[in-house]
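Re: adenosine-5'-diphosphate structure - here you go.
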Amino acid sequence: MSETHKFQAEVSQLLKLVINSLYSNKEIFLRELISNASDAIDRLRFRSIREPELIGDGTPFEIRLLPDPKAGTLTIEDTGVGMTHDELIQNLGTIAHSGTRAFLERIQSGEKPNLIGQFGVGFYSAYLVADRVDVISRAAGETKAFRWSSDARESFTIEEAQRVERGTSVVLHLRAEHRKFLDDWELRDLVRRYSDYVSHPIKLRVSTGEQSGKFEVINKASALWQRPPKEVTQAQYDEFYRHLTHDFEGPLTQTHFQVEGTLLFSGILFLPKKAPFDLFHAQGRRGIHLFVKRVFILEDCDELLPPWLRFVRGVIDSDDLPLNVSREMLQDSSIIRTIRKQVIKKTLDLLEDLAKEQPGSYATFWDQFGAVLKEGIATDGEYRDRIAELARFASTHGTELTSLADYVSRMPEGQKDIYYAIGDSKESVASSPYLEALRKRGYEVLLLSDPIDEWAVDALRSYKDKKLVSAMRTDLKLDEQSNEEKKKQEGAVAPLCDRIKTFLKDKVVDVRPSERLTDSPVCLVIPQGAHHAPMEQLLRASGRNLGATRRILEVNPTHPLIQSLQRLNEQEPSSEKLREWVETLYDQAVLMEGGRIEDPNRFARRVTHLLQEVAAGVGR
Ligand code: ADP
Ligand code: MG
């Protein structure tokens, strides 16, 4: 008896999308179906560690391609775990993957379908070449088999079927124009191009010529990471990476190693080209595939990576772990700890090489993942200094990002510290008043605008004995002026500072003459222990109660506006006008620091009012 089920709405949508956006890439259906077959064998092999009876009948692990030119069908067959009646409905009738679901939501919200690159298109790619697909499957350990069948319009049917072995056969009824996928040479070529990494044998049942009817193994059938790196081509790495990650694009680069010694393990670690959309989600997909003695154990094993390398993908295959290793065992396994150390070392080596030999690719990497790597500076003392060498920052030196080493190499004589300023964006920091005095002295300033930056520089403190100093903090010392001249200016502006303090007593902790300003009348500086504005906003947004964080207002004694206010203060000490000026300047300073002013409307009214007075003067 056959039952009919409707596809989940999202499936129909995904099907349309796959067919419309991949029409020029039809041949990928084969690698997707072989990839599923390989996964199914891996899963069965893993389960059979605890349930050896599942493979007791001796059926070999293999994938078969059966072209049938007479019937116009191509069958992809595997001896993997198979699917039960309910699994067929669940896996091939709904979208279970949270990633695919999120992807569809983003498409609906108007993003471009080329995002499809971030998700495996999977089983439904069969409909790129077939107008009907039958899936006959018998789950390992079961006696009954079922046939799933659909023309991919709205529904599929399920009925009982015959299958002697465990596993799955996917029968593609090829559309007339896609009969070339029945050709032996075409299939050999596609497998060589897209599926050579598969570690299980892929057997082609030859359909023409003398060998017709015979099976021929058409891939190398050994795990890619076990082969000597010299014998693996970039195209093979690319395909393997796609299989592992469902990324549509190839990786940026990879490192392939075989470690021998007290521990025996091998692996391939990849850097993706693009950050996945869930890089900063707590439940994002991450980690490395773990194999034990060539047997697939675990997808997304994050015990092998520190959080600041969560973008690294790949495989590790250990000969020392027991096959029946569990998640709990991984958490306090000394073998895992040793491998993790090596994974970190290999990744940092890879990044250092890339930075040195391919600065262009490194810039791409940094753009996508720099913010994550910088978390390591903030949180991981053991690797802090190595990561600091890899870090790149915007600076006043030019449009390109700079390393700390390059910054130091440009430091003029007399400059002792490394300076930085923090704000919302590189542009706003670059034009901030805090940089004025440093600029004048010819000192370069790092322009930081990533929320993680403040954590990172605070944790790093210094680089090669050069202190990292914020241009916005109170501890900036630039004594160069002769003390006498300084004293004189400070003395002159002192009464005004005292006056301003009475106006702003609820807003600032102190008002004092400034050394760092040349062109601006005032600025706010950050007292010891307080955060820069972007970090403060981040902490507030995450629900932290910071209380009122008050700044120090610095006043530029040489600025004409300040000098005018000084005179106004001497002539009319009780003037309301002075208060108006001071409060407006204060609000302006808050804006320049990248903060939010309390009452933007009042600020605007005051500015208008002051401008009006000036305009009246101009028009007279
Ligand atoms: P993905 O491979 O990313 O999970 P697919 O669309 O390729 O997505 O496949 C959907 C699901 O169908 C798989 O997760 C798996 O559970 C099941 N499946 C597909 N092909 C097979 C197969 N040959 N054997 C067993 N299960 C399969
Ligand atoms: Mg798949």
